[in-house]
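pasting for the record
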Amino acid sequence: MKKVGGRFALLALVVVLSVVFFLPSYKPLYQAMPDWARKVIPDKGITLGLDLQGGIHMVMEVDEDRAVEIAVDRSVVSLQDLLVDKKIPAESVKRTGANHISIQFANGEIKAQIQKLVDEYPTFFEVDAAGSANSVVWELRESEVKRIKDSAINQALETIRNRIDQFGVAEPLVQRQGLKQIVVQLPGVKEPKRAKDLIKETALLEFKMLDEDNQMKMDFPPRVPKEKEAEVLKQFEGKVPEGDQILFERVVEKETGREFRIPFLVKKRVMLTGDVLSDARVSIGQFNDPYVSIEFDGKGGREFERITGENVKKRMAVVLDNTIYSAPVIQERISGGRAQITGTFTTQEASDLAIVLRAGALPAPLKIIQDLTVGPSLGQDSIDKGVQSTLIAGALVVVFMIVYYRLSGVIADFALVLNLVCLLGALSALNATLTLPGIAGIVLTIGMGVDSNVLIFERIREELRAGKAVRLAVDGGYAKALLTIIDAHVTTLITGVALFLFGTGPIKGFAVTLCLGIAINLFTAFVGTKVVFDLLNHRRKVETLSI
């Protein structure tokens, strides 16, 4: 009886946990619960997908070739400034084609001087060095072309995510599709036009000085939860010196993953903007510490040198969309149009910061190639039909099992209900997104759950026909059906995993419910129904079995 009691306790625990995790998904009941209960149970449940609650679906294409042209144009401006600084009289410097720079000059004697300048632009190489005596042609390296194209897509992804986060959309989907497309899904958006306009805007990158003289006087808290920013701003309202503002730096605890905000007093005056930033990339220091290397164009380099020279030992904030990403101390005048942003970065964090910086410096043109708006009424209709189909399928299966297997069919129906409860609980615990194909996966799970019990019951019938006692027949039926059921479920699981790995949004939703349903079905078939049969056999000696 101990084994049965242990399995029964496990079954009860799984059911209770499933119900607890599912409660936030049923808003009327969750909102009616007392505050202490809502603090104890999870606050997130199943999220409805775009096809169920309505919203926006957009597919945008990044103009990678234009991104390369913009990068070459910036190099042209930088080269023009360099020629002026070195007093080399070139007649013209211009981009030819997508990735070539042509330099024309009247005096052929300065060709050697210009050819040496390519060393300062390692991403270019000279084409046909023995060609015209009065011109030099540079070409962007193929590796750099690929890097710029990939960077353009990454920066577009980051810019869109930043804008969507500001818009406050719950569970947005922003992901890369193919080589140069970006898919954006915004479920539950009430203002689709505003959301689309927000996505198209460009992130604003600014360099501002911290007001360290007044920072200490403000007596800011060392850090605050991310949702408490408004309270801090209200607390210090009217106390901020004229010409200053309060901005927050985002901090994530590595141990817990919790997000915090550190308030800073920043001067409103913009010292430099992302317009003059030509590149940002991750580099590795001498102690294998990652840092972000940034590069300005000619004008930005000169301005940055002047600003850093006037503010040595002061802190400069790197601000993107009014959020501080870094606030390093200026150690010395920085010349050459290059700078470093160092800190306790992981490689991933440094890479993310570089993407954010590029997002403000080199926006790649985006073209909307697909724009669909799903209305909430259509989404509700999908939910109603999905629930209706699930109920009809479940009812038909329940009736069939009772008619064909009698009392044992009732036990199988119990497993079916248990399967649904556990599946909804698992989806809620994972905070999964439920789509219309996901509902189809749930319906399919109902059929698979019944299929497992049919195999078990037929094996039990065979054992009973062989003259075995009820208890031995039940044990034998489960034992003999085990391998067959596992084989069938494993092959389906492989298919589900493949769909999840290689499928897109709706297909992934179907794959998630399918894979979870398979795992839960094995549990309910070999633990749920077996516990009921064992309890019946332990309470009294069963001579016959209604099957």
